[in-house]
From TrEMBL:
GO terms for cellular component: plasma membrane. Signal peptide: none annotated. Coiled coil: none annotated. Keywords: Membrane, Transmembrane, Transmembrane helix. This is G-protein coupled receptors family 2 profile 2 domain-containing protein. Pfam families: 7tm_2. PANTHER family: PDF RECEPTOR (PTHR45620:SF17), PDF RECEPTOR-LIKE PROTEIN-RELATED (PTHR45620). GO terms for molecular function: G protein-coupled peptide receptor activity. Residues 1-184 form the G-protein coupled receptors family 2 profile domain. The chain crosses the membrane at residues 12-29, 41-63, 83-106, 127-148, 160-183. It is a multi-pass membrane protein. It comes from the Eukaryota. It comes from Scylla paramamosain. The keyword Cell inner membrane does not apply.
Length: 251
């Protein structure tokens, strides 16, 4: 039972990932190309599609797969059955739609670059850069996972397919974080500003504390001779000692 539940959770997470990739592609497409929707983003609908639709799809697939395997322990090779297309079909549709979104975004980008009178080489470079940046975000690299495993081919071909698919799947989140977070100019500026403010407040606190210590020491030094005992007792209390030096309190 634990094995089947693990497969269900895995496929739900993957399906939710594809749904959110579709939402991201739709959001970017409407933001860039369709001006009428620029100020109308239905986030409640996005959440329902991103988290709710995968529940229905995964439940339908899990029910069909459980009926297919019956009482067999675990669902070994479930991704090779025809029921797996309950999940793979919508995922492939998401990748196809995101590819259309990407091409349309590049078209709009090239049109705007031409209107800015930039050179042809610069236009191509910016368009290619935008496409490369959007590829992992829209999940188009996952198309390799939908290619049938070349089990009947040579070991080199199977190894190439296996390493490529596992590398792209495993590091997709890293590439997205790298491109959209760590290398993003706005994010780096915000982090740098936060660190500078923290260091500024910390140095100001250190200077304030050292200033109070110097004022206290100067005041103790300027006391008359008969008050030095009380001053020494006060210093010892500040250092943590609670008893007077000579066994009696100073009044």
């Amino acid at each position: 039972m634990l094995c089947e539940a693990s497969y269900v959770l895995l496929e739900y997470a993957r399906t939710a990932m594809f749904m959110w990739m579709f939402i991201e592609g739709l959001y970017l497409h409407n933001k860039i190309t369709v001006t009428v929707f620029q100020h109308k983003f239905y986030y409640s609908v996005y959440h329902a599609v991103g988290w709710g639709v995968p529940v229905l799809m995964t439940a339908a697939w899990a029910t069909a797969t459980a009926m297919h395997y019956g009482s067999s322990r675990c669902w070994w090779g479930y991704n090779f059955t025809s029921y797996f297309w309950i999940l793979e079909g919508p995922r492939f549709s998401v990748i196809s739609l995101n590819m259309i979104f990407l091409l349309n975004i590049i078209r709009v980008l090239v049109t705007k670059l031409r209107q800015s009178n930039s050179s042809e080489a610069l236009q191509v470079r910016k368009a290619v850069k935008a496409a490369i940046v959007l590829l992992p975000l829209l999940g188009i690299t996952n198309v390799l996972n939908m290619i049938v495993a070349p089990l009947g081919r040579s070991a080199a071909e199977f190894g190439l397919w296996s390493y490529a698919t596992h590398f792209l799947t495993s590091f997709q989140g890293f590439f997205i974080a790298l491109l959209y977070c760590f290398l993003n100019g706005e994010v780096r500026t915000a982090v740098r500003k936060y660190v500078d403010n923290y260091l500024l407040h910390r140095s100001a606190g250190v200077r304030r504390g050292s200033g109070l210590s110097s004022v206290f020491l100067t005041t103790v030094t300027d006391l008359p001779r008969d008050h030095h005992g009380r001053a020494r007792h006060l210093c010892s209390c500040l250092r943590g000692s609670q008893s007077p030096t000579h066994g009696r309190p100073y009044l």
